[in-house]
Design goal:
This protein folds into two domains: 3-124, Response regulator (Rossmann fold); 141-245, OB fold (Dihydrolipoamide Acetyltransferase, E2P), CATH 2.40.50.1020. Helices cover 34% and strands 30% of the residues. The protein has seven helices and 15 strands. The protein has helices spanning 12-25, 38-48, 64-69, 88-93, 106-136, 187-193, 238-245, and strands at residues 3-8, 29-35, 52-55, 77-82, 98-101, 144-147, 152-155, 160-166, 169-174, 179-182, 198-202, 205-208, 212-216, 222-225, 230-232. It has a five-stranded parallel sheet. It is globular. Keywords: DNA-binding, Phosphoprotein.
Length: 246
Amino acid sequence: MIINAVIIDDEVNNVDNLSILLQQYCKQVHVVAKGFNAQQGKDIILQYKPDLVFLDVQMPGEDGFELLKSLPDLYFEIIFVTAYDQYGIQAIKFSAIDYLLKPIKIHDLQDAVNKVVIKNSQKKQNLQLENLVKLLQQNEPPRIAISTTKETRFIKPDNIIFCESSNNYTTFHLNNSETIISSRPIYEYESLLGPYGFIRCHQSYIINKNHVKSWVKEDGGYLLMEDNSQIPVSRNKKENLRDLLR
């Protein structure tokens, strides 16, 4: 399995060193582009759509965390590479698959890349399951596959009230008060659920517009769902959400 990667670091020597280590010890990783500041990093991520990003935290101007916040979706895996060890908690918030300290140790780098290989393999299996669901949908009402740590559940979209993100996991809240915790991040479900009337109203929430009871304008504004859950609405999504709910 080939993993297309980009390296973003403001020091040329660090970029070259990491490239050499990957070439020698992680041959499944193919470096498709390199960036030396946050803007270059954003440009190459949007252009090459990599599977993996090696990202330095401290860079002139915007740092690595600010770069990630500026992207519309974090669909790729992230390995932070930094000379400082105080950023671990922030790295977790961005669901980083690993956190490497400079100078990079070869076995740490190999362990981090192996985690990416395993996760990408799981994504491939999930895609196969989605293809199976499409076949099932030819003769039955549409269903989606929700992968948990123990099983794969096949659920009708109409039964889902909303989805809630928690790092690399997604919790599905159903209309029978049941919750299902998926081992996949929420952004992977956004395009899958879109055709069934689901809307991304917040970084951490996707809602089924057919289960919206009201849009409450007080207390900063939130969506009241049929199960009485209160779902926040991001400021930058309000206008689009208003149009989609009409």
